[in-house]
Design a protein that fits this description.
This protein is an all-alpha fold. 72% of the residues lie in helices and 0% in strands. It has eight helices and no strands. Helix 1 crosses helix 7 and helix 3 crosses helix 4. It starts with 7 loop residues before the first helix and ends with a helix.
């Protein structure tokens, strides 16, 4: 079953997942993105693949449900249908998300967008959480 091309909605989904990372998980990605420079820089193709693998691994480890739902959407199936697919499906998805021309810089762009949002609104996540609890 083919994977659909990535689109803007996927960028927002991944940025949302990145915003949920805390502690060591977020730090690992931040270190990868700022390796040696102290700030995010334009990675080369080899580093883009490594960044993709690191982000995928971190999201899988920390946010398995969100990751599974997103992967299912890439195949155009429900989460339940995705979980019934052959085990090679996940490997194919990871391969696509780290090596295809369409996806090579996807995670770098998602991380850059996440960082930009964080710099515009430090503490926004906490403010949004507080407004949800007070409106419920």
């Amino acid at each position: 079953m083919p994977i659909r091309k990535l689109r803007v909605a996927d960028l927002f989904i991944v940025v949302d997942m990145l915003s949920k990372l805390t502690g060591n998980a977020g730090t690992a990605i931040d270190k990868m993105m700022t390796a040696g420079t102290g700030e995010a820089s334009a990675p080369g193709d080899g580093q883009k693949v490594q960044i993709g693998l690191t982000v995928l691994q971190t999201l899988y480890t920390s946010l398995r449900e969100d990751m599974t739902k997103w992967l299912a959407s890439l195949y155009g199936v429900t989460t339940e249908q995705f979980l019934e697919m052959p085990i090679d499906t996940v490997l194919e998805a990871f391969e696509y998300l780290t090596t295809s021309e369409d996806a090579k810089s996807f995670f770098s762009k998602a991380w850059a967008m996440y960082r930009k949002i964080q710099s515009f609104a430090p503490g926004l996540k906490e403010k949004l959480s507080l407004s949800k609890t007070t409106s419920e």
